[in-house]
Amino acid sequence: MVDGLRFAVVCSSNQNRSMEAHAVLSKKGFNVRSFGSGNQVKLPGPAQDKPNVYDFGTPYEHMYNDLLNKDKNLYTQNGILHMLDRNRRIKLHPEKFQTCRDKFDVIFTCEERVYDQVVEEMNSRSPLDYSTVHIINIDVQDNHEEATIGALLMLKMAQSLAQSKDLDNDIDELLQEFETTINRPLLHTIAFQ
């Protein structure tokens, strides 16, 4: 395990971006969990207005087999079966962030809307010990290529944060350097847990 930092990655109800980051960070030894923030897990379907919808807690194995039976060719071509195969090797099922009460040092989000949801959720909770959690957003488009790029950017950021001896004091400078390096805007706030 790298350092003692606990990371979370939260994206919308689609599991591609958060699970790609989870896989990359986990392979590098980071203590990481991944979450969705929507009401249900939504995966692309046969048409844009016909997604496949599952409840959080539905095993990835079930989703994989369900889509395999619905249309193996479609879900192989669009990469959904590959994504679910990866996901089921990482964890049993998708989790909803709002139902998790575990503590983290850093929460990465993949879009501003999700960042706002996470900040709102953390601010609505009664803090247990007033430890800090850094919520950091880096916008990642919802496609396979961007999910990979976003995961690598989160890995670089996690590596930088893990090297800090005093994260609370160093984070502003670290994020400013990182933002300049990647040429993407970041959002950051602190919440108490």
UniProtKB/TrEMBL annotation:
<keyword id="KW-0904">Protein phosphatase</keyword>
<keyword id="KW-0175">Coiled coil</keyword>
<dbReference type="InterPro" id="IPR006811">
    <property type="entry name" value="RNA_pol_II_suA"/>
</dbReference>
<keyword id="KW-0539">Nucleus</keyword>
<dbReference type="GO" id="GO:0005634">
    <property type="term" value="C:nucleus"/>
</dbReference>
<dbReference type="GO" id="GO:0008420">
    <property type="term" value="F:RNA polymerase II CTD heptapeptide repeat phosphatase activity"/>
</dbReference>
<comment type="function">
    <text>Protein phosphatase that catalyzes the dephosphorylation of the C-terminal domain of RNA polymerase II. Plays a role in RNA processing and termination.</text>
</comment>
<dbReference type="Pfam" id="PF04722">
    <property type="entry name" value="Ssu72"/>
</dbReference>
<dbReference type="GO" id="GO:0031124">
    <property type="term" value="P:mRNA 3'-end processing"/>
</dbReference>
<keyword id="KW-0378">Hydrolase</keyword>
<keyword id="KW-0507">mRNA processing</keyword>
<comment type="similarity">
    <text>Belongs to the SSU72 phosphatase family.</text>
</comment>
<feature type="coiled-coil region">
    <location>
        <begin position="157"/>
        <end position="184"/>
    </location>
</feature>
<protein>
    <recommendedName>
        <fullName>RNA polymerase II subunit A C-terminal domain phosphatase SSU72</fullName>
        <ecNumber>3.1.3.16</ecNumber>
    </recommendedName>
</protein>
